[in-house]
Specification:
Helix content is 43%, strand content 19%. It has helices at residues 14-22, 49-58, 87-94, 121-152, 156-173, 185-191, 213-218, 224-237, 246-252, 257-267, 274-284, 309-316, 318-322, 332-338, 341-346, and strands at residues 3-7, 40-45, 62-64, 67-72, 99-105, 201-207, 241-244, 287-293, 297-304, 324-331, 351-353, 363-369. Helix 4 packs antiparallel against helix 5.
Amino acid sequence: MLKAGIVGMPNVGKSTLFNALTRTRKAEAANYPFCTIDPNVGMVSVPDERLTKLSEMSNSTKVIPTAIEFVDIAGLVEGASEGAGLGNKFLATIREVDAIVQVVRCFENEDIIHELGTVDPTRDIEIINAELILADISALDKRKQSRVKKAKSGDKESAAEVALIEKLLPHLDAGKPALTAELNDDERLLLREFFLLSSKRTIFACNVNEGELADAVSNPAAHPLVSKVKNFAAESHGAEIIVISAQIEEELVDLSPEEATEFLSDMGVSDSGVSDLIKAVYHLLGLRTYITTGEQETRAWTITDGDKAPAAAGVIHGDFERGFIAAEVMHYDDFVALGGKTAGREAGKLRIEGKDYVVQDGDVIEFRFNV
C-alpha cells in the first residue's frame, strides 16, 4: 500500500494532525521538540460521499471506503542531512514513503514554542527542502562515483545514470527539488531508481488557529501566512495547499459524527480541512476509485491512474483479472441522475467495455469473468 509521510519542523502540529487523520491519540503531541521519535503509522479511510448515496440506492448492508496509509515522522531541524537532531532517522523514514504532506505553521501562539523562536512558514519550508536536497546531492555523488568506471567501459545503463546525475546535480545545487527538474520520460523512469527525497510529490498543509479557519479557507489571499505559503508552494514545487486546523481536529477526535458536525457548524465551517487533505493526498499518490454496489455492500476499490479494466478487476480477486471477459460500466453521475443501472441501460449510459478500457475515477462497475 502506498504511504504518505507527514513532515515538518518541530511543534508545527504534525502529531496532532496525525491523530486527527487516524481518529486516535496514537501520536504524542507535546510542546517541545522531538516528541515524535519513532514514526507512527495509521490507516486512514478516504472520505467519499458517493458511497453513501449509492448505498441508499442499493439498500446496501455495508459501506466500505478505500484507505491510505499515513506516517507521522519525527520533526526535522537544520543540519538533519548531517545527522543533527533526529535527522538520520527522519531521512531514512521519509525515503520509504511515496508522497509528502509538509505541515507548516501558519499561526501565532506564544504558548507553543517554535524551534527557531519566530513563525515564518516559508523559511521552515526552505529549511526542510534544503535538508532533503543536501541529502540527495550526497547520495548522487556517491552513486556517480560507483558508476563512472562502468560507464567508461561501455556499460550503457551506467552511462545513462551518470548522464542523469550530471543533469540533476546543477538543478539541486541551485536549491531546486528533483521533483521540478525538466526530464524526458526515460529520465523520469530512471529517476525512480534513485529514490531521491526531493523527488517525492508534495502537498502543503497550512495549519491555522481555529478562529482563522473559516476565513483562511474561503479566502486564502486574505490570510498573510497562508497566502505566502500558497505562492511559495506553487513557485517552488508546482504544488497545492490545503488549509487545516489541527487545533479543531484535536477537539473532534472524541466526538460523534453528529457532535462533530454541530461543532464545525458553530465554527462557521463544514470541515476542518482534514477530509480535503486526505482526498488531495489520495490523488497526489496517483490513486483513483471505482465503485461496486449491491444489496450486500457498496464498496470503493483503489486503482492507479491509468489502470485498465482487467487490472481493476484484479483488485477484487485475481480470478476476476485472469478470467476477465468484460466490464459493465456506468459513471457515478449518470447512475445517480438516472436512478440506477436499469434506467442507465435504457438511456444508453451503461456501457460494455473490454480489456483496453481505462477505468475512470467514479466508475460504477460490474465485471463479467470466467475461470
